[in-house]
UniProtKB/TrEMBL annotation:
The keyword Signal applies. Residues 36-175 form the BD-FAE-like domain. InterPro entries: AB_hydrolase_fold, BD-FAE-like_dom, GDXG_lipolytic_enzyme. The lineage of its organism: Bacteria, Pseudomonadati, Bacteroidota, Flavobacteriia, Flavobacteriales. Pfam families: BD-FAE. This is Alpha/beta hydrolase.
Length: 292
């Protein structure tokens, strides 16, 4: 499908702390109308092109929204620091499902959820690339980001699109320049290769009880449970990037649990400085920080 900027989008302008927000519909799938909010810098010349933070909220694929206060605040921060912030909605495929997304959710259903989340994310990315001129986006500098379920969707979209996407041609023009993951994991880190690896920021607690820090079952389900599915967490992703000599910023919080999925506002200056140095200036930096 070719995206048409003026006829395909539904547009609204909101105001959050004096920050203009423009809303577009990027896809309609069944009963789901999927939208994204664009937070643009206040002062923009027509010739300006900006890097992008493309953000996917968390919520276990059952709750959450693109305009929740923290997700909106993050995109607002991005817009105030030389980026265009984009926060997306996506299909919450586990909403109202009795088996949830834990150990009673069958492995096959989990993998299908990951797949469809990755596709939704790629569709949102394709939309902003298709409409880059009107949105004043630099398509060579798209930072993919998300927290918890959103981080899982993002990581799988960036590193496993060949596995999950049904039509790769649809995303030929989608190229990611970096990743920002808060308590995320990937289905298989072996899909991270020299050809697709990009500078990556990882925040994770070592005792995360839902999304594994290391290689472990999702939700730490027992092998006999329907939802037993091994995932590779931030520790494995960072190890893979180190081997490939790709930049990463790995913030480890000892003994912390899934609360590290919250957006680390106190560290955002460091996160954006990392992308400034690695994505904008092509430096190679590998940093590991351990907090207790």
């Amino acid at each position: 499908m070719k995206y048409i900027f003026l006829s395909f989008c539904m547009l609204s302008v909101l105001c959050l702390n004096a920050q203009a927000v423009t809303t577009y519909t990027y896809s309609v799938k069944g009963g789901d109308t999927l939208k994204l909010d664009v937070y643009a810098p206040k002062k923009m010349k027509k010739s300006d092109k900006f890097p992008v933070l493309l953000w996917m909220h968390g919520g276990g694929f059952s709750i959450g929204a693109r305009d929740f206060i923290d997700d909106a605040k993050l995109c607002e921060y991005a817009a105030k620091n030389g980026y265009i912030g984009v926060s997306i909605s996506y299909r919450l495929l586990r909403k109202g499902i009795s088996t949830g997304f834990g150990c009673e959710c069958a492995k096959e259903d989990k993998l299908e959820t990951f797949k469809q989340a990755a596709i939704d994310y790629l569709d949102a990315a394709a939309f902003i690339v298709e409409n880059a001129e009107a949105l004043q986006i630099d398509t060579t500098k798209i930072i993919a980001g998300g927290s918890s379920a959103g981080a899982e969707g993002t990581l799988n979209a960036v590193y496993m699109r060949e596995h999950f996407a049904d039509s790769l041609n649809k995303y030929n023009n989608v190229k990611f320049a970096g990743v920002f993951s808060c308590a995320g994991a990937i289905v298989n880190a072996d899909y991270i290769t020299q050809s697709n690896a990009v500078p990556t920021v990882l925040f994770h607690g070592t005792k995360d009880q839902l999304v594994p820090f290391d290689t472990a079952p999702h939700h730490f389900c027992e092998p006999e449970k329907p939802g037993y599915l091994m995932l590779d967490g931030s520790k494995i992703i960072a190890k893979k990037l180190e081997e490939l000599e790709i930049s990463y910023y790995f913030n480890i919080v000892k003994e912390a649990m899934h609360e590290i999925s919250t957006i680390p506002f106190e560290d955002l200056d460091k996160v954006f400085n990392f992308f400034e140095r690695t994505v904008m200036n092509n430096e190679v930096i590998q940093t590991k920080i351990i907090k207790r």
